[in-house]
Design brief:
InterPro entries: BetI_C, DNA-bd_HTH_TetR-type_CS, Homeodomain-like_sf, HTH-type_TetR-like_transc_reg, HTH_TetR, Tet_transcr_reg_TetR-rel_C_sf. The mean pLDDT is about 90. About 70% of the residues lie in helices and about 0% in strands. It is mostly helical. The protein has two domains: about 45 residues, Arc Repressor Mutant, subunit A (Orthogonal Bundle), CATH 1.10.10; about 140 residues, Tetracycline Repressor, domain 2 (Orthogonal Bundle). The chain is elongated.
Length: about 210
Amino acid sequence: MSRRSFHRAPEAERRHDLIEATLDCIAEGGLQGATVRQIAIKAGVTAGLIRHYFVSKEQILQEAYRVVIGRLTEKAERVAGTPDERLRSFIVINLTEPVANSRSLSLWASFISRVSVDPALAAIHREGYLGFRNALEGLLADFLASRGLDAGPARCRALAIAINGLLDGLWLEGCLAGELFEESELVSTALSSIEALIGQPIAPPAPTK
């Protein structure tokens, strides 16, 4: 097990370093591998220092799951450009590196196995899902409104639920068996399927000069 280089830093940075060490442990050995001792070894610190920042193993796991969920959504929520460009970017980001890779899948799978039995993790999962879906609903509303189409909350909600399910499935396929697909095949499949759901083409970005 490789160790991280731990250094003197402000409290927020120290907490961040410990969470990163926790994620490393989970990616390598699942939740059962993320003991306080193993996290301390990975971070290059004492177990006592971890307990100084986190009152329990459960708390550090909760914070780590927030980071996992945040990384699956934060890049997609910061897209820019025209309504078409933002919707297209949102789709592409969720099916390519670094959102779609074996490490992301390993972390997600480790936590999702506990979500149904851990109320705290379930609340974090729900918060992340709703944040992702709300961002998608906003992109869809702008996209539809730019074409003078129905962009009401009910329609955008229904489309966002369907598109989220589609992206989840393709993301899982890409993470589990990416070698079975041609380059950009999953992105192309997502775009054509979402265009069929919306009933509108998603224009590609204008060529740069």
